């Protein structure tokens, strides 16, 4: 008498991907309910079990489904939206503004369902995600019948799903409570990265993860810049920093870890953290090469991930596993590095262990969930087959198989794809919706790209709006007479500053767009030492708004914002037609004259070497006010002995650029 099971796989070439890399040919596997009951040589299994359903695998490969250890699945909807950009420009210039506008619950659900279709088709049975509205990811994933570790994002600034991080934490708690015991979904918490969170967020998310015993998913040491900034700000690299915040006490899944040293690798290993290596994303964004062989050598659980489909641009784990092997070889200058079998272990069992769910999935071992796939090794691109060594098969899968060679996928004991027919997702319907949305996003970006102002606003952050100034600028011979004249008793000095300014003006082909000025101010103390620096971005109006007696101008500054990013970032994001650099040493006074406040700037323009300029200016709100202030400006020029000077009606930039 044989024991009846739900599904009996016969005539298969089984790669268990267990610790011993056991293979069975011909092999058989018995599935009862959601789990694997038995696996072994066909003869033995057939003697003991019969199946309600018997599947003749016809010699195909039967192996555990692939584990995508790091992704952002809803971003299938943003695939191909902006490419060939640096990470910060890509993220802050495109992804975040579009997400702020479009990433709704519906967006997340739709993007996830599409991702599930793509993942199932390519033999992935489990993925590890991080996004906004993660509960919608969880719902769509469960509906598609896939296994997911679904991490609710937490950032220090407002996100599409939370006004503040406190809100996000509250939502994450509720979400984890609701999904904690789901058969397919492992809810998790995902502080986005050290540079987008705070020490408090890292501590609180780790506490929440520990409270519910769920994983914590985070991007760590993705770029050299991130590590450089961390060293500059905190005096240590990224892994010690997160350790200091208690983060490593949680079950961490660290995405990337491209720029970590031997000590940091040991720290991660000691903490039992899992790592996701994301070769396509690291290559495409030129983030660098993760020291994968070193991580594996110390016994770290390193899985492989695709990262989000907007930075890859697909979710194809076959490609990813292959790249992981290739890159390791190229990096170590050693073709024996990361052999095919080990790369495939990373794509399956080690990936599951990195996600802290190795007890559930990742290998075809009795007791594990029945998450498995069938691969056809007979297509022309993968013929013939050699069987003299066990490694022949791993090489075939890793170096020659394509995701489209996957014919059948079972997750948690249930079929989700049979003979390449998806059973849980309606692709056609979803793709039509995605195309519709793509048209809307396209027109949003087209409109935005037409205006420097809207591109500036799209970056977010606090900014002051439109302001008007009455101003005059006079070329003078020397600074000292002006400094002396400022001591006159009619003039009340409120404060005095000294700084060196570096201005870079971006010019655009369409002058009506105005000019963008990136300014770095280095504050200089009495001893001539720089005490601190700040950078600001100002969009200047194209034209003067009005002119008064003696060439006093009414000018318009349209937007002023702290420049949180580098000059290089703004250059790549705004793509100016040309640039002009100006350096000057500035003495600045805020003075009161006849009950009105004025700024007096005494500039020594050193680059280009233009010499001294005196500038007197005041904010204004109406034409009448401007008229009155223009009068006072002229009086001040006389008091300072500069009324006879050469009035510069255009500012430096116009002189310099000849415009
Ligand atoms: Zn990522």
Describe the structure.
This protein has 659 residues and is of the alpha/beta class. Helix content is 34%, strand content 32%. It has 21 helices and 27 strands. The strands form 4 sheets. Strands 1, 2, 3, 4, 5, 14, 15, 16 and 17 form a 9-stranded mixed sheet that branches. The longest helix has 23 residues, at 427-449. The model has no long low-confidence stretch (mean pLDDT 92). The protein binds zinc ion.
Detail the topology: elements first, then pairings.
Layout: E1 3-15, E2 23-32, E3 35-41, H1 42-48, E4 49-56, E5 61-64, E6 66-71, H2 87-102, H3 105-121, E7 124-131, H4 134-144, E8 147-154, H5 165-179, E9 185-191, H6 199-212, E10 215-220, H7 224-234, H8 238-244, E11 251-256, H9 262-270, E12 274-277, H10 279-284, H11 292-297, E13 301-304, H12 317-332, H13 340-347, H14 349-354, E14 372-375, H15 390-400, E15 406-411, E16 414-418, E17 421-422, H16 427-449, H17 452-458, E18 464-476, H18 480-485, E19 492-507, E20 515-524, E21 530-540, E22 546-548, E23 552-562, H19 567-574, E24 578-593, E25 596-607, E26 611-620, H20 623-639, E27 646-647, H21 652-657
Parallel strand pairs: 1-4, 1-5, 6-7, 7-8, 8-9, 10-11, 11-12, 12-13
Antiparallel strand pairs: 1-2, 2-3, 5-14, 14-15, 15-16, 16-17, 18-23, 18-26, 18-27, 19-20, 19-24, 20-21, 21-23, 22-23, 24-25, 25-26
Helix pairs in contact: 3-4, 3-16, 5-6, 12-13, 13-15
Bound molecules: zinc ion.
């Amino acid at each position: 008498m044989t024991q009846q099971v739900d599904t009996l796989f016969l005539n298969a070439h089984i790669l268990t991907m267990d610790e011993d890399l056991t293979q069975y040919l011909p092999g058989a596997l018995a599935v009862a309910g959601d789990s694997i009951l038995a696996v072994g040589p066909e003869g033995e299994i057939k003697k003991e079990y019969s199946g309600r359903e018997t599947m003749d695998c016809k010699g195909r490969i039967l192996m555990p489904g692939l584990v995508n250890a790091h992704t952002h699945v809803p971003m299938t909807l943003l695939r191909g939206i902006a490419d060939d950009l640096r990470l910060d420009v890509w993220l802050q210039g495109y992804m975040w503004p579009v997400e702020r506008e479009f990433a709704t619950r519906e967006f997340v659900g739709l993007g996830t369902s599409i991702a599930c279709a793509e993942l199932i088709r390519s033999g992935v049975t489990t993925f590890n995600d991080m996004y906004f509205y993660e509960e919608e990811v969880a719902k769509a994933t469960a509906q598609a019948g896939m296994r997911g570790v679904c991490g609710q994002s937490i950032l220090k600034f407002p996100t599409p799903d939370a006004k503040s991080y406190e809100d996000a934490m509250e939502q994450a708690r509720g979400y984890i409570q609701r999904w904690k015991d789901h058969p397919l979904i492992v809810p998790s918490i995902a502080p986005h990265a050290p540079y987008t969170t705070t020490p408090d967020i890292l501590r609180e998310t780790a506490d929440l993860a520990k409270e519910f015993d769920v994983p914590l998913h985070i991007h760590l040491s993705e770029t050299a810049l991130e590590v450089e900034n961390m060293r500059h700000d905190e005096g240590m690299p990224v892994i010690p920093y997160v350790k200091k915040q208690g983060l490593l006490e949680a079950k961490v899944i660290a995405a990337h870890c491209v720029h970590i040293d031997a000590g940091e690798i040991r720290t991660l290993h000691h903490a039992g953290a899992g790592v996701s290596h994301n070769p396509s994303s690291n290559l495409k964004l030129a983030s660098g090469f993760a020291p994968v062989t070193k991580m594996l050598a110390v016994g770290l659980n390193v899985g492989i991930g695709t990262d989000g489909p907007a930075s890859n641009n697909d979710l194809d784990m076959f490609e990813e596993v292959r790249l992981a092997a290739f890159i390791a070889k190229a990096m170590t200058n050693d073709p024996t590095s990361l052999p095919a079998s080990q790369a495939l272990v990373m794509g399956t069992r080690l990936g599951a262990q990195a996600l802290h769910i190795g007890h559930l999935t990742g290998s075809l071992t009795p007791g594990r969930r029945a998450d498995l796939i069938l691969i056809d090794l007979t297509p022309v691109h993968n013929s013939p087959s050699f069987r003299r060594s066990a490694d022949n098969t791993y090489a075939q899968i890793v170096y020659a198989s394509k995701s489209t060679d996957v014919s059948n996928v079972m997750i948690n004991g249930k079929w989700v794809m049979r003979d390449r027919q998806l059973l849980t997702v309606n692709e056609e319907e979803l793709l039509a919706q995605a195309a519709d949305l793509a048209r809307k996003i396209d027109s949003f970006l087209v409109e935005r790209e037409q205006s420097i102002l809207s591109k500036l606003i799209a970056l977010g952050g606090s900014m002051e709006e439109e302001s008007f100034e009455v101003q005059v600028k006079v070329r003078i011979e020397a600074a000292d007479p002006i400094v002396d004249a400022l001591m006159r008793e009619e003039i009340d000095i409120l404060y005095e500053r000294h700084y060196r300014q570096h201005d870079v003006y971006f010019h655009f082909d369409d002058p009506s767009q105005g000019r963008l000025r990136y300014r770095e101010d280095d504050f200089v103390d009495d001893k001539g030492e720089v005490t601190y620096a700040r950078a600001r971005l100002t969009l200047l109006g194209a034209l003067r708004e009005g002119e008064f007696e003696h060439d006093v101008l009414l000018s318009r500054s349209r937007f002023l914002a702290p420049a949180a990013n580098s000059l290089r970032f703004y250059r790549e994001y705004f793509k100016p037609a040309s640039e002009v650099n100006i350096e000057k040493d500035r003495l600045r006074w805020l003075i009161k004259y006849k009950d009105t406040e004025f700024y007096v700037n005494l500039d020594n323009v050193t680059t280009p070497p233009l010499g001294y300029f005196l500038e007197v200016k005041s904010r204004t709100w109406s034409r009448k006010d401007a008229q009155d202030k223009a009068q006072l400006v002229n009086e001040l020029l006389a008091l300072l002995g500069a009324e006879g000077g050469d009035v510069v009606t255009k500012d430096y930039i116009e002189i310099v650029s000849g415009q």
